[in-house]
Amino acid sequence: MLLEVKDLNTYYGYSHVLQGMSLTIDQGECVALLGRNGMGKSTTLKSIMGLAKPRSGTVLYKGDDVAGYPPYKVVNAGIGYVPEERRIFPTLSVLENLAMGMKGGKLDKGNPDAWTVERVFEHFPPLKERKGSKGALLSGGEQQMLAIGRSLMGNPELLLVDEPTEGLAPLLVSEVRDMLEDIKKTGVAILLVEHNLKVAMSLAQRIYIMKKAEVAFTGTVEELDARPDIREKYLEV
Known about the structure:
alpha/beta; Rossmann fold; six-stranded mixed β-sheet; four-stranded antiparallel β-sheet; 35% helix; globular
């Protein structure tokens, strides 16, 4: 098992945001974490990344408990993070933003499968065309590509992706979905928080659905597809 989250409890002040949250991800697997707004999906990703410190529970990554690690240690362990807000550097160029994603500012030259600038450009051709452009001048779709590409430059085995299609036009939604499919094919495991059910179910092998602060359903895509009652209760507006 690549990642195993067990009984995670995270608070924001006195608010108990995650209550016994548990999930697993295997090598090369794509798992979707779904639910309405405010259920704790983003907090789950932040708790894994060390951006929100769990009060109790474990985050086992490749057998090591990384719960409570600072974010840079989580990244060094092999977990990448694409936040919902993208958080690219607006005054830096595409190339400079990608360089910021390298662990220790260095390429992994000893790994023939390492993510490099050239490999990122191969998967995201529009970024190559805009490599000298500042982040603030990119379109929403290009900024999302850059946020994903920057995380890949750290050569993660697991990528946490938070709402990658939020606010994008339908054509760009399709492009971002295809990007994630390509990344999955390279063997990178993905934990995906996504409001677009069609996108999530086209990418994931398994689904977790959250109700307030905890898991309400877990199963395969096929099992969720056969449960319109679950979709209506926990996903539909």
